Amino acid sequence: MSLRLSSRTSALTPFLAMEVMERGLSLARQGRRVVQLGVGEPDFDAPPEVVRATIAALEGGRTHYTDSRGLLPLREAIAAHYLARRGVDLSPERVLVTAGTSPAMLLVFTALLDPGDEVIIPTPHYPCYPTIVRAAGGTPVLVPTSPVDDYRIDPDAVRRALSPRTRAILVGSPANPTGAVQPPDVIEALLALGPPLVSDEIYDGLLYDDARVCSPLGLAEDAFVLDGFSKRYAMTGFRLGWVIAPEAAVRGLQTLQQNLFISTNHFVQEAGIAALAHGAPTAARMRVEYARRRDLLISGLEALGLHVPAPPRGAFYAFADARRFGQDSLALAFHLLEETGVAAGPGRDFGALGEGFLRFSFCAAPEAIAEGLERLAPALSRLAARPLRG
Ligand SMILES: Cc1ncc(COP(=O)(O)O)c(C=O)c1O
User: Fold this and answer.
1) Sequential DSSP letters for 55-66
2) Alpha helix (H) residue ranges in the chain
3) pTM for this one?
4) Residue from 133, 115, 117 nearest 125 by CA
5) Distance from the CA of 173 to the center of ligand 1, in angstroms?
6) Residue 148 contacts by C-beta under 8 Å, 6 or more apart in sequence?
7) pLDDT tens profile 332-359
8) Is the minimum distance from the CB of 199 to ligand 1 under 6 angstroms?
9) For residue 387, how far is its CA from the centre of ligand 1 (angstroms)?
10) What distance in Å separates the CA atoms of residue 325 and residue 323, rounded to the nearest whole number?
11) What pLDDT sits at residue 99?
């Protein structure tokens, strides 16, 4: 057979949390009870106004291609969102609507990178960051962060990682998997380093205690801001996001979008307009509920010996140190899934610094969190006596 995948594709690594989830789904198909705590899938339904607007859009024939950049009323609503939230007066011409934050990232890095160009990524990191950079032909350069100082990015460490090939610095805040929120002095110091910041703000609004997101929007002309409806509005399956691009990059992104995706789904864009117009009260209720679930999950994990060294200040994940139960997080995640029916995210997915950790989501229902913790208890006490060998 002469079929051969490109070396670029063959070099990509699977998304391990998805692999554990998919194994869990196959166990569930065999009749096993499985508690999914490994992926960032809110258990809430999308706001009712959004569902109604989607049905009305479908019934009203809103099922065609749109302007490749997105419907103008949606781009205007996104621009208005930044005026209300950040006081930044943004032209809708700088907004490009995409089928989620993931395609937005692919467009941005395809636009920015020539083969071998570098993107600096603080780690532990969202697994798809380096994969998307590689898929776009670039090279990820990882810069460590530590729970000792709440996974704060060290701008000096980023400076040392710069090279003539550095094309961007990618920051997720609030971060997946750590829940870290980067303070303004870090964002300002990163902006001063020169390369454009690509700011993944998909968890903006999912904040606890007194945490606030500092966005480069309004602080730098050449920053890219990525966001979407998946998490804040529990709209993961709608596939809808956006990028705010520097003026000089808009035309290039539009050309890529026209050729690669044509446009984002028409009726889904109508859902986005409804979410921005009417979804805020539902989103606010979900955030309050996540804060409650965060406490439930973290106190439960700590009681099981799964220490969370830096409690999350945003997003909806707890990144727990599981090394006393086994050093190989992938083997441990599969072992726990088979033994207890609880799916957790293997820390290795998030980079070498995540090895030995497990990621648990608190966007699952409180009953699922409680059941998951209860199921884990006996297996973990066996492993405490006899840790899993990888
Ligand atoms: C940090 C981060 N960025 C981006 C995404 C992708 O989101 P979307 O559903 O908008 O593609 C996720 C999904 O889990 C994420 O955790």
Assistant:
1) HHHHHTT--S--
2) 7-10, 16-29, 48-59, 72-86, 101-112, 128-135, 155-161, 184-191, 247-260, 266-278, 280-303, 329-340, 366-385
3) 0.96
4) 133
5) 12
6) 309
7) 999 999 999 999 999 999 999 999 999 9
8) no
9) 33
10) 5
11) 98
